[in-house]
Amino acid sequence: MGTDLAKAYVDAVIEAGGDIVVVGPHAYVIARTINGTSSKSDEVLDRFGNVTHLKKEIIAYLRKLGRTIEGE
């Protein structure tokens, strides 16, 4: 169940124009672009609410999608 919700969350953020990526081994960030997608991203974040409990699943799915920024 958590994995499906994490995938739905990530897919919705991407579809709304948010750039969601893994940064380092244990974190992810969402960069909202300035081309009118900020409000769409906000709607997704509001719809899903607090997803802190899905952090591991979100990070795993983002890695599977290749959406990572690796540090030195």
Describe this structure as you would to a colleague.
- The chain is α+β, with helices and mostly antiparallel strands.
- The chain has helices spanning 2-15, 38-48, 55-65; strands at residues 18-23, 27-32, 68-69.
- It has a three-stranded mixed β-sheet, covered by helices on one side.
- Helix 1 runs antiparallel to helix 2 and helix 1 packs across helix 3.
- The protein is globular and about 30 Å long.
Intertermini distance: 34 Å
Name the overall outline. Answer: globular
What percentage of the residues does DSSP assign to strands (E)? 15-25%
Tally of individual helices:
3
**What letter string, H or E per element, gives the SSE order?**
HEEHHE
Radius of gyration, rounded?
A: 12 Å
- Which stretches are poorly predicted, pLDDT < 50 over at least 5 residues? none
Largest sheet data: 3 strands, mixed
Rounded mean pLDDT score: 87
SSE-based structural type: alpha+beta
The largest sheet has its strands arranged as 2-1-3
**DSSP, total strands:** 3
Kindly state the percentage of residues in helix: 40-55%
